[in-house]
Write a structure and sequence with these properties.
Layout: E1 9-10, H1 13-25, E2 47-52, E3 55-69, E4 72-81, H2 95-100, E5 152-157, H3 167-173, E6 175-177, E7 183-185, E8 191-193, H4 198-210, E9 216-220, E10 226-228, H5 237-244, E11 249-252, E12 258-265, H6 267-282, H7 293-304, E13 307-308, E14 311-312, H8 319-329, H9 342-350, H10 366-380
Antiparallel strand pairs: 1-12, 2-3, 2-8, 3-4, 4-5, 5-6, 6-7, 9-10, 9-12, 11-12, 13-14
């Protein structure tokens, strides 16, 4: 069997990685989910079940990290106490009220006799009723003891991906992890349960490969040569076998010759396949938020000048007004020495297209500009002066 290039993983790990990344982004039911699994017609949450006396106690299992390896995908998870569900007491659930409002019952009828319904006496009105007005208290509930094993666990998803989320297979690969990274088996009876999204993610991964997302190579059995796998291969029956098991696969190369070997993928390409599969299932991912001084300056100025979704809501300002406010806030951020013209360049990123050149103020906006000049004078300690390239 040929050796895979360094860092590469078998093709059967690709759907496992997509499953792990999806579970990583889907929080338990109680929290806000980045990936709504219900949109895939898949319900449930990641849970850990531990035996307690005669019942099982459930914990929320949150996936913290996902790592692909040649043998599968390891999930680093954390078990947390699940908030207890406290049912709200409805008016109909009041025992005293229920006793007073019991439905009337009928006495057995004798043929030919008409009997009127008679209401059952309410609690407190029957002299033979002991402890009238009282309701027998419910036995106190003993809160379950917390899980004795460490809360940090590792679970390995192994091929084939269709069966990787079965509770038995998950529990067999799960182990507790300590601070020193040492692993030990979970206590007897502890089970791991994850939402079964295997079929949905496997189909999305195959569609992503057909569309050309990422690229896999075939390491030829005899020569060890890495041959690029064409997108048309993923439409064949052999493609499904390649994604399910780490076995030898045969294909026809773009040059028309037959090749046999192991299909594998590089880490960067693995991420590209996952991103395309995610886009197919959940839509485009939101862009990452920039945490730079320049981005913070833009957010600060836009907020203070009343811009919402790119549109002014308080003042209809031109670029020279915005530039004056940029210069006013410049020193509050770690942006280096201020130079002439910098504020105008930043202001053009905020201003509307029709306001990106300095100029006079239309009559209908005079009151707005005067109000802004008053606020500017209070903040800057001086009156506003028009500078075309501030």
């Amino acid at each position: 069997m040929p050796r895979l290039p360094r860092g590469f993983v078998p093709a059967c790990v690709v759907p496992l990685y997509a499953i792990g990344r999806t579970l990583h982004g889907a929080l338990p039911i109680q929290g806000e989910a980045e990936f709504p699994l219900a949109a895939l017609r898949v319900y449930g949450s990641s849970s850990l079940y531990a035996p307690l006396a005669k019942e099982r106690h459930a914990y929320d299992l949150r996936i913290r990290a996902v790592e692909a390896s040649p043998i599968g995908v390891e999930l680093q998870a954390e078990a947390r106490e699940r908030p207890a569900h406290v049912p709200r007491l409805r008016e109909d659930d009041d025992p005293k009220r229920a006793a007073r409002m019991r439905r009337p019952f009928l006495i057995p009828r004798i043929p030919g006799q008409v009997v009127e319904p008679r209401a059952q006496p309410a609690v407190g009105s029957d002299p033979n009723y002991e402890n009238e007005g009282d309701v027998a208290p419910e036995p106190p509930r003993v809160p379950p003891k917390p899980l004795r094993s460490p809360t940090s666990i590792a679970v390995t998803l192994v091929p084939p991906y269709r069966d990787c989320l079965q509770t038995g297979r998950l529990s067999a690969t799960a182990c507790a992890t300590g601070f020193a990274g040492l692993a030990r088996p979970l206590p007897k009876g502890v089970e791991v349960s994850l939402p079964n999204i295997a079929d949905v993610l496997g189909g999305a991964v195959r569609d992503a490969l057909i569309e050309g997302a990422g690229s896999m190579v075939l390491v030829e059995e005899r020569t060890g040569e890495a041959i690029l796998i064409p997108g048309s291969f993923w439409r064949t029956d052999a493609a499904q076998e390649t994604l399910e098991a780490d076995e030898m696969v045969s294909m026809v190369t773009p040059e028309g010759r037959e090749a046999r070997g192991l299909a594998c993928i590089a880490p960067q390409q693995l991420e590209l396949v996952w991103l395309r599969a995610r886009h197919r299932l959940f839509g485009a991912a939101p862009p990452p938020r920039l945490h730079t001084p320049g981005a913070a300056l833009l957010e600060r100025v836009s907020h203070e000048l009343g811009y919402v979704d790119g549109n002014p809501t308080r003042w209809d300002l031109r670029v020279d007004h915005i530039a004056a406010w940029v210069e006013l806030r410049w020193k509050e951020f770690d942006l280096g020495e201020y130079k002439n013209g910098t504020a105008t360049g930043v202001a053009r990123l905020i201003a509307l297209p029709e306001h990106r050149t300095p100029g006079g103020t239309p009559t209908e906006r005079t009151a707005q500009i005067e109000d802004w000049k008053r606020v500017y004078a209070q903040e800057a300690g001086k009156q506003y002066a028009l500078i075309k390239d501030r």
